[in-house]
Amino acid sequence: MRRGKLIDLARPSRQHWLGYILLAPAVILVAAIIVYPLIISIDLSFQDVKLPRMGAPRKPFTLENYQKLFSSPEFWQTCWVTLKLVVVVTIACLAVGLGTALLVNNRFRGRRLARLAVALPWAVPEVIATVIFAWIFDSSFGLMGWIFIKLGLANQMVAWFSDTTAAFWVVATTMVWKGYPFVSIMTLAGLQSIPEDFYNAAKVDGANAFQRLRWITIPSLMPVLGVTMVLVTLWVFRDFSIIKVLTDGGPLKATQTLSIMTYNEAFGFFKFGYASAVGVITLLLCVVASMAMLGRGSKAMY
Amino acid sequence: MASISIQNVHKSYGALNVLKEFSLEIEDGEFVVLVGPSGCGKSTMLKILAGLEPASGGRILIGGRDVTDLAPGDRDIAMVFQNYALYPHLTVRDNIGFGLKMRGVPAAEIRRRVDEAARILAVEHLLDRRPKQLSGGQRQRVALGRAIVREPQAFLMDEPLSNLDAKLRVHMRAEISALHKRIGVTTIYVTHDQIEAMTMADRVVIMKDGVIQQIADPDTLFQKPKNLFVASFIGSPGMNFLAAAPANGAAIRLFGKEVPVNVNADRLMQAHSNGGIVAGIRPEYISTDGGGTEFIVRPSLIESLGSEKYVYFDAGEHTFSGLNDEEARKGLIARLAHSSPLAEGQELKLSFDPARLHLFEGKSGEALN
Predict the structure, then answer these.
(1) CATH number of the CATH domain containing A194
(2) Cβ-count burial of B51 within 10 angstroms (0-12 exposed, 13-18 middle, 19+ buried)?
(3) Reported ipTM exceeds the 0.85 cut
(4) pLDDT band at B203 (very low <50, low <70, confident <90, very high)
(5) A219 in helix, strand or coil?
(6) Closest to B100 (Cα-Cα) out of B115, B89, B88
(7) Going by C-beta distance under 8 Å and a sequence separation of 6 or more, which residues neighbour residue B232?
(8) Cβ contact, residue pair A203, B103, below 8 Å
(9) Which residues of B touch A219 (CB under 8 A)?
(10) What is the structure's pLDDT at B1?
């Protein structure tokens, strides 16, 4: 006799129900805080909106925001800064992260402590790290200016944030310091999954340390490095607080990235339609960039 | 190709001595198998030989050259690993040619030698695939290919067949033996499987707890084991052990009978006071034909393997528990070709030839005959 259970999830034909039920809260949350604003944002970018209000009547459809954007030298300058920052920071993070991971993967006394030290910047809140760097690069009594004078590289304190090139490199340095531990941690996990016998076999085959790195370590890490590179790139794309606190995009917009521009247009000049257009373009760039990199990455996977 | 000389090599991790003084002379072209239960030091010895681990002391000579402190790559040896250690990101061709490439051999030469090795191992059609696309046996062949392509002085193999299923293992065993006969390179092979050791080796080194128990060719190991451990390790099913008492003269008392043995009475008495006399008889030398020493048993279990039957029975008063409990609990086994119906619990007359009896001293485990 059948027992009249209302919803029997154990029945084979309903196996997938449980999955959907468990998935639902996360999906609903993501939809509410990401998908819905995204749609609003795309919609806003096609309207001439200064300050959006709930319940306000929809403005007429226009491509004006995009036309203005693509003809604006400021936008292209911002794109160039963003690209420079993405390339510089991503490459530096990968280099420093891989280097430190290789170091702390060796067996030595105090390895735990060294691993902790490598991962430490990851634990420092972004804003605090940025404030520390702002002090290090302070133009009156910063540590870095003093070091430069002591090393004879400068004969007076350097005004880091008044020079466009210097400001860019200060921002890049701060981002690398904050970003490399992520690469370290990911790479370290990747390194530990490489079988010891790969190295033993290579040693017996006469490969030296550099050849082992080039032919075994790097190729074996490619899947991890690919994903990590995408995540770091996206992080640089979207990172806001470091630049906001350090330079606020200045001087002369030399450190203004797309995310800073979006913020300034929206909350500085209250041009929400225009800001939305910048945001949508940023999103498209991110999608294209990550798809290109993931495509390459998955090819490197075996 | 070269002879290998291992002289008093030992290895300790702190106070833990995993390998006691190990000395072995291996002739040019010889196939030597190191065998023993896990943790006996056989893999450690192989790693020391390869240069992957430093020895705590002793000397190693390959082809008369002292290699004790040379890097693995400078010893001119090739190694096959248990999990093959094939690089997943390289094709089979690149995997086989890896060692040559690392040594800066010209590309054309690498190509020629890889093709040659692939032909010997019949993997020519797989050269452009990646390891992931290969079956276990094919991966094994590629790993062998990577070893032979280098044309080294010696092959070291670390349990190369243990990741294969039973049927393939038998097949690859024969293939490795054939390969050795064909190219004749000195080979040192590590395994925990006594059947591999017996079937492949010119000489077998049996190890236990870091100590060599016996070095001999397979037949000698089987017929004249030096101690209880070797006797129990070699052969499948393992040798039966019985606790025996000395009788008058050169004889022992078994199953209520006096069994003459070729050990003098003094030695027997000495063994008796030194942990007792242990008699060993291999399951295949117990028969139902009669003659020799006869005894009656009630089988507790009969396993039929088709061509033969394993008859389990209790040792009764002769139960020997010196090796381990499990050994004692399983009782004794007779391996009978008899095809007539046998029943569990029904009286069965068995016999063995006293000349087939092995005798050991209980305490030291040393063979008496």
Answers:
(1) 1.10.3720.10
(2) buried
(3) no
(4) very high
(5) helix
(6) B115
(7) B238, B239, B241, B323, B327
(8) no
(9) 87, 89-90
(10) 66
pLDDT at A164: 86
* CATH label of the domain that carries residue B311: 2.40.50.140
Domain that holds residue A114: 72-300
Domain endpoint, select from B159, B192, B224: B224
Nearest to A204 among B78, B83, B132 (CB): B78
B46 plus B123 within the same structural domain: yes
pLDDT above 70 for B338: no
What CATH number should be reported for the domain holding residue B9? 3.40.50.300
Per-residue pLDDT at B329: 64
In a domain, A39, yes or no: no
pTM: 0.79
DSSP H helical ranges for A247-271: 258-263
Last residue of a domain, one of B224, B249, B265: B224
Beta-strand relationship, B65-66 and B57-62? antiparallel
pLDDT band at A98 (very low <50, low <70, confident <90, very high): very high
SS3 state of residue B27: coil
String of DSSP letters for B292-342: SEEEEE--SEEEE-SS-EEEEE--GGGB--SS-HHHHHT-EEEEE---S--
* CA distances (Å), origin A140, targets A153, A158, A254, B169, B330: 16, 8, 21, 75, 86
Q: Residue A215 and residue B87: Cβ atoms within 8 Å?
A: yes
b/e map of B308-326 (b: 16 or more CB within 10 Å)? Answer: ebbbbbebeebebebbeee
Domain-located, residue B368: no
**Position B326 confidence tier, pLDDT thresholds 50, 70, 90:** low
| Residue B99 resides in a domain | yes
The boundaries of the domain holding residue B279 are 229-361
Q: Which of residues 149-208 of B touch A (CB under 8 A)?
A: 150, 156
- Domain count along chain A: 1
Q: Tell me if A46 is assigned to some domain.
A: no
pLDDT digits (tens, 9 = 90+) for A146-203: 898 889 888 887 888 888 888 999 999 999 999 999 999 999 999 999 998 999 999 9
Q: With beta carbons under 8 A apart, name residues in chain B contacting A197.
A: 81-83, 85
Q: Are residues B310 and B252 in the same domain?
A: yes
